[in-house]
Specification:
10-stranded antiparallel β-sheet; 6-stranded mixed β-sheet; globular; disordered N terminus; 31 strands; mainly beta
Length: about 700
Amino acid sequence: MSETTGRSFPLLPMFGHTKGKRSAVTCALKCDNACAGDVCNTSANGYFRDIASTALSRRAALGLGAAGALAVVLGGAVTGADSAVADSGNGLSDAAKKGFDKSKLQFTAIKPVDAAVDAFTVPEGFGWNPIIRWGDPLFADSPAFDITMQTAAAQARQFGYNNDYTDILPIPDSKDRRAVLFTNHEYTNENIMLPVGFDAAEARAIGRAAHGLAVVELERKNKNKPWSYVQGAALNRRFLTDTVYELTGPAAGTNLVKTIDDPAGRWIKGTLGNCSGGTTPWGTILSGEENFNGYFATPGTSDSDKRYGLSSKATARQWELDEPRFDTRNSGYANESNRFGWIVEVDPFDPTSTPRKHSAMGRFKHEGANVILAPDGRVVAYMGDDERFDYLYKFVSKGKYQAGDSKAARKNNMSLLSEGDLYVARFTGDSPTAEIDGTGKLPADGAFDGSGEWLPLVIGGASAVPGMSVAEVLVYTRLAADKVGPTKMDRCEDVQPSLLTGKIYVACTNNSDRGKAGKEGATEVNPRTLNRDGHIVEITEAPGQTGTKFNWTLLLVAGDPAKNSSTYFSGFPAEKVSPISCPDNVAFDSVGNLWISTDGAPSTIGYNDGLFKVTLEGPERGKVEQFLAVPRDAETCGPIVHDEERTVFVAVQHPGEEGTFDAPHSYFPDYVPAGTTPAAGAVRAPRPAIVQVFRK
């Protein structure tokens, strides 16, 4: 295999076939050209067809008493089995009934922004600024960012690239003046990071150093002032490809995960393809390893290789030239790819802690994981497998949450995700097939809805899948799920429970293969052929989070109503909503409104991606209002909504991705004017960044 420069990518099958914002290079680097390849799931299971923040807020859960937390979070929120999901007034706690539409974050929706515009657009009366950008120095000894003089050693001490899931957690006893920011660094796009002719080996090393995770301390003068990051702070940390992670749960120590470097099968170097995530009630961060397959060359012949999209082709980044573990055909590394595809847990408040990968939660292309406490104190995590025609999963812990921050409670809570039950979802629609004609026309009952069940994969420490051990179920979760007959979904990405109502919201980004020759056509939960705009599924567990039955309805069928008559917004007038396409990450504000960030709108409706508020209850249920738009070629990630402070945060990923180093498509976030000398730390080039938006 020959050396390549930092700008030469030999594996670009999407070149000439992409539309809008997704460039051929990014298709290769982010998801290994998943849309150009065969669908990994070739099982005979039905497609997602016949089917188809207050007290314990994910932002302020530390130190809350168990009884009070459970009462506020769930109260009377979870409906019984006889409650209809479509009746949005059923099952609400008193807090939810009184809280909706009472947010302090009031704004006038912005107009959609043309996809060619390179601007970060916010509502009238709001301002914005970046908290931290790619390359910003994190430690006292970190060099200042110099885009023309990059090195791997420097990048390892600087903020990484393509930040995705983000959260900001207050540091106790700091009077709201100090916090920690966590973010994923999902992947790199060397095509716009490095100039033509850059040394190939150093380019690969820089790319590795820009992956991983970051924890950064923040400070502000008071809660009405913007945050700034603190260089050299005690909690600052970078998690790199050589950072050691502990593998927990039943798969740890088994022959399926051992390698020549780790004969114990318990200590894994690095985390890859980290996309979305979640924050636990005990103050740790969960990060999902998603498109890990693109980092490995493998035999590509086994059922597991094929099911996970692993192949024998050279990888786009060619890290296998530098580290033999990235080619599993090398002696002793056959299991290396099995060590990725997990949920990672990080303690952002302990810079000496060892992060962990939880095998009990299954291995697949995790978009992320979000948790809620069940009434009995067990932790329930919801997870999407982000690939066309793959599944929705649920994990229920064996142990129960303990309130407080004592050593005993901390030890207990840090073990909750290491043992429990794993399920996969099967959905059923309630309308005759004849009523679903592919146009998106509502069925006669006036809603896309139905029921469902959680099918067991691991229960009580035993495999529920015939012919597979517990370790095999957890390492080859996709293959195990295929055997029990779940329903296939349209790229199930972020899955988030509302802590006010207990309802679950699933962002199905899109699936343009639906209805193509040999593929499933329109169904009640996927009412359109060639689903390019995506939809949001709302799930109500019945009777509760730990049960195995649920009801579901489509909250919205996305698109631009002005151009597409098939959009649906829970009955809210389509002409009164902001156009929205390709829902990706979701979050809630303190009063229970859903916020949706998008990834793909430029290629579907011609507008820049953005962040949108959706009303969930009352007469305006289904109303979509656009809050912000990100710059040209960028994706909106990691939304955080601190509505009580009238502040919103987003991670802006891959701005200007379709440009080149010499001819940028974006100058976000520094926007240095042509012909001027950049200020210290600024550059005239695109830089992924964490941005805060605030009321002026």
